[in-house]
Amino acid sequence: MTEGVWEAPGRVNLIGEHTDYNDGLVMPFALSRTVVATAARRDDGILRLHSADAPGGPVELRIDALAPGRGPRGWTDYPAGVLWALREAGHRVGGADLHYESTLPAGAGLSSSAALEVVTALAVTELYGVGLGRQEMALICRRAENAYAGAPTGIMDQTASACCAEGHALYLDTRDLSRRQIPFDPAAHGLVLLLIDTGVTHAHSAGAYGERRAGCESAAAALGLGSLREIPPEELPGALARLTDPVQRALTRHVVTENGRVERVRAALEAGRARAIGPLLTEGHASLRDDFAVSCPELDLAVRAALAAGALGARMTGGGFGGSAIALVEASARERVAGSVERAFAEASFRRPEIFAAAPAAGARRLS
Ligand code: GAF
User: Fold this and answer.
1) Separation of first and last alpha carbons in the chain
2) Is residue 147 within 8 Å of residue 81, measured between CB atoms?
3) How many whole angstroms separate alpha carbon 325 and alpha carbon 45?
4) What's the 3-state SS for 28-91?
């Protein structure tokens, strides 16, 4: 029996990378690619999870036995973690049947895990009549991801999936969780935002992401600060002069300059100057590649080839180590840029990338 159908989108981060666990600024937008959940309550305390994309049949878990590290490791950790985190927070949710179908590639840096968490939280809270605000829901989902699935991520992806609005990017200050919808409609400016999925999969729980996070925390501690957000862009030279470790210096430079880029992108978009964000995207890529060291040859090539073919700006998006890049292009240059990236990948003997236009779509919602 089905009681309802819900969907939650993946996200593209326009700018503000690796800042969300440094109390920093981010600006993602939602994709029209989503995870859809068909759901119904159960009265036997069982959580029954089934994904059209996962091999094997449904997985059944007792909700009162859910505990971090105890379940079968894999995709079911995300929805099971949401049930666990909701119950831990005192919300009265019980068993459920959840069937998922997704148009989001996993491991492409487009937040398929956050979409899976958010659609689960939305479906289960609505089924059980639990009133939960969208930001609170995103926090529950992050707890599922951090504590249950074991990935030490920030709050950006869950907030994007839960709170984005069509035609807008979401400006989020992760220090106080204040947020603002910023109009962003590339088509209205004669532009296209191309998404280039390199097909190289990444895994956040694998060490590199956690190492960057720990490196940022140790840099802040070395400076006697609670987080790198406390360094305003104009105080960066002074902070760098006080750090002796070259890795800490590079991580700090990225985070502080990236927060500055988010502000500049926001200001340009609010002034209706969409083309002006191009160079800021490209600057952000250089900083992630050279200072934060989270790019990879495929992402660098996607950016280089897009720029060489006339893109206004391009950068990797998401956590890095694979996944996707974005390129802002004149609508008239779309085929030329996409073709040039495909040719460059073929010449380098990289897997053929999947390239499509991404327009800011709606956040999570009930479909029926
Ligand atoms: C991943 C994480 F899940 C986010 O929290 C964020 O840190 C991002 O990488 C990098 O900006 O998507």
Assistant:
1) 14
2) yes
3) 42
4) EEEEEEEEEEEEEECCCCEEEEEECCCCCCCEEEEHHHCCCCCCCCCCCHHHHHHHHHHHHCCC
Task: Count CB-CB contacts under 10 A for residue 213.
Answer: 17
Three-state DSSP at 119 gives helix
The CA distances from residue 332 to 193, 310, 325, in Å, are: 12, 11, 20
Q: In the annotation, is 157 catalytic? A: yes
| Predicted confidence (pLDDT) per residue in 242-275, tens digit | 999 999 999 999 999 999 999 999 999 999 999 9
Could you read off the pLDDT of 290-342 as tens digits, one per residue? 999 999 999 999 999 999 999 999 999 999 999 999 999 999 999 999 999 99
Q: Assess contact for 336 and 309: CB atoms under 8 A.
A: yes
189 within 8 A of 60, measured Cβ to Cβ: no
pLDDT tier, 205 (very low <50, low <70, confident <90, very high otherwise): very low
**Is 319's C-beta closer than 6 angstroms to any atom of ligand 1?**
yes
The model's pLDDT over 128-155, given as tens digits with 9 standing for 90+, comes to 999 999 999 999 999 999 999 998 999 9
- Please give the distance, rounded to the nearest whole angstrom, from the Cα atom of residue 272 to the centre of ligand 1: 27
Report strand pairing: 96-102 vs 46-51: parallel
Cβ atoms of 342 and 348 within 8 Å: the answer is no
Give the closest residue (by CA) to ligand 1 atom 3.
153
Residue to mutate (ligand 1; options 13, 15, 19, 20; most atoms within 8 A of CB): 20
Residue pointed to by tokens 């593209």: 12
ipTM entry: 0.99
- Per-residue pLDDT at 55: 85
Distance CA 78, CA 198 (A): 24
The closest alpha carbon to 82, from 136, 28, 38, belongs to 136
